[in-house]
Amino acid sequence: MLGPGDDAAVLSAPDGRVVVSTDVLIEGRHFRRDWSSGYDVGRKAAAQNLSDVAAMGATPTSIVVGLGIPADLPLTWLDELTDGFVDECATVGASVAGGDVTRCDLVVIGVTALGDLGGRAPVTRSGARPGHVVAVTGRLGYAAAGWALLEAGVPVDSPALREAVAGHRRPCPPYAMGPLAAELGASAMLDVSDGFLQDVGHIAEAAGVRVELDPRAFTVAEPVAAAAKELGADPLEWVLSGGEDHALAATFPPDVRLPASWQVVGRVVEGEGVLVYGREIGRRGWDHFR
């Protein structure tokens, strides 16, 4: 209703409730300016917050941005960053409502995203029950594969490898699937930001259940497979443990008929924790303080 230019923005809340999520990105930890353009970073920063809103079953409506930047940051990089925020928000019909800028030694970006439930109940992590199925929609393994390629410094000289690197620089969350999952009756849902195994572990813990996964049910996309071949790595490790793709993982009652965009990869049973049938998994996901 009122955007940038005053001390605060004014947003409508037709549902009467507002879904809020926030994240911080720090240069050198979440992105590198020699690997990603300002536009890439803007898209990524907005995407990971908008995806959290979608994971609650809500439709993103706006973001506000807190930005710390060095005094010598090129203005073109800042313009690209802003364009990235705006364009990623545009993919879901959201707006950049405002923010704040301060001087800082590194680029630090804090994004707060807001969303509207449209009359639906929020989909939390605690609703999974024994007998429900576990499903995923969106990409898995791209960001981890792209990061590994950049870290190794290998030539990215094929379309598949370039697509993997692009997946690290700029995720493609399946935003529309969040509200759709809520309408279908998802019992629990979250954004896969720290690795599929680690994140579905949050569902298991919150609901007091056990999640059992079938590794054969996961799809290894060609860019992920190509990167693994190039580096001599196991692509399924990236699919199961790599983060920052911002896919959506959810549980559904067994009688829900899922569209093809959702892939059933496991089930919920009595117990606790996460079990992957017939496979030892090394790295379980990202933890800032591990």
UniProtKB/TrEMBL annotation:
<feature type="binding site">
    <location>
        <position position="194"/>
    </location>
    <ligand>
        <name>Mg(2+) 5</name>
    </ligand>
</feature>
<feature type="binding site">
    <location>
        <position position="125"/>
    </location>
    <ligand>
        <name>ATP</name>
    </ligand>
</feature>
<dbReference type="InterPro" id="IPR036676">
    <property type="entry name" value="PurM-like_C_sf"/>
</dbReference>
<comment type="pathway">
    <text>Cofactor biosynthesis; thiamine diphosphate biosynthesis; thiamine diphosphate from thiamine phosphate: step 1/1.</text>
</comment>
<dbReference type="InterPro" id="IPR016188">
    <property type="entry name" value="PurM-like_N"/>
</dbReference>
<feature type="binding site">
    <location>
        <position position="52"/>
    </location>
    <ligand>
        <name>Mg(2+) 2</name>
    </ligand>
</feature>
<feature type="domain" description="PurM-like N-terminal">
    <location>
        <begin position="5"/>
        <end position="115"/>
    </location>
</feature>
<feature type="binding site">
    <location>
        <position position="7"/>
    </location>
    <ligand>
        <name>Mg(2+) 3</name>
    </ligand>
</feature>
<feature type="binding site">
    <location>
        <position position="100"/>
    </location>
    <ligand>
        <name>Mg(2+) 1</name>
    </ligand>
</feature>
<dbReference type="InterPro" id="IPR036921">
    <property type="entry name" value="PurM-like_N_sf"/>
</dbReference>
<feature type="binding site">
    <location>
        <position position="21"/>
    </location>
    <ligand>
        <name>Mg(2+) 4</name>
    </ligand>
</feature>
<feature type="binding site">
    <location>
        <position position="52"/>
    </location>
    <ligand>
        <name>Mg(2+) 4</name>
    </ligand>
</feature>
<feature type="binding site">
    <location>
        <position position="23"/>
    </location>
    <ligand>
        <name>Mg(2+) 1</name>
    </ligand>
</feature>
<keyword id="KW-0418">Kinase</keyword>
<feature type="binding site">
    <location>
        <position position="52"/>
    </location>
    <ligand>
        <name>Mg(2+) 3</name>
    </ligand>
</feature>
<feature type="binding site">
    <location>
        <position position="193"/>
    </location>
    <ligand>
        <name>ATP</name>
    </ligand>
</feature>
<feature type="binding site">
    <location>
        <begin position="99"/>
        <end position="100"/>
    </location>
    <ligand>
        <name>ATP</name>
    </ligand>
</feature>
<keyword id="KW-0067">ATP-binding</keyword>
<feature type="binding site">
    <location>
        <position position="30"/>
    </location>
    <ligand>
        <name>substrate</name>
    </ligand>
</feature>
<keyword id="KW-0479">Metal-binding</keyword>
<dbReference type="GO" id="GO:0016301">
    <property type="term" value="F:kinase activity"/>
</dbReference>
<feature type="binding site">
    <location>
        <position position="22"/>
    </location>
    <ligand>
        <name>Mg(2+) 1</name>
    </ligand>
</feature>
<feature type="binding site">
    <location>
        <position position="7"/>
    </location>
    <ligand>
        <name>Mg(2+) 4</name>
    </ligand>
</feature>
<keyword id="KW-0460">Magnesium</keyword>
<feature type="binding site">
    <location>
        <position position="191"/>
    </location>
    <ligand>
        <name>Mg(2+) 3</name>
    </ligand>
</feature>
<dbReference type="InterPro" id="IPR006283">
    <property type="entry name" value="ThiL-like"/>
</dbReference>
<feature type="binding site">
    <location>
        <position position="286"/>
    </location>
    <ligand>
        <name>substrate</name>
    </ligand>
</feature>
<keyword id="KW-0808">Transferase</keyword>
<feature type="binding site">
    <location>
        <position position="244"/>
    </location>
    <ligand>
        <name>substrate</name>
    </ligand>
</feature>
<comment type="similarity">
    <text>Belongs to the thiamine-monophosphate kinase family.</text>
</comment>
<protein>
    <recommendedName>
        <fullName>Thiamine-monophosphate kinase</fullName>
        <ecNumber>2.7.4.16</ecNumber>
    </recommendedName>
</protein>
<feature type="binding site">
    <location>
        <position position="23"/>
    </location>
    <ligand>
        <name>Mg(2+) 2</name>
    </ligand>
</feature>
<comment type="function">
    <text>Catalyzes the ATP-dependent phosphorylation of thiamine-monophosphate (TMP) to form thiamine-pyrophosphate (TPP), the active form of vitamin B1.</text>
</comment>
<keyword id="KW-0784">Thiamine biosynthesis</keyword>
<dbReference type="Pfam" id="PF00586">
    <property type="entry name" value="AIRS"/>
</dbReference>
<keyword id="KW-0547">Nucleotide-binding</keyword>
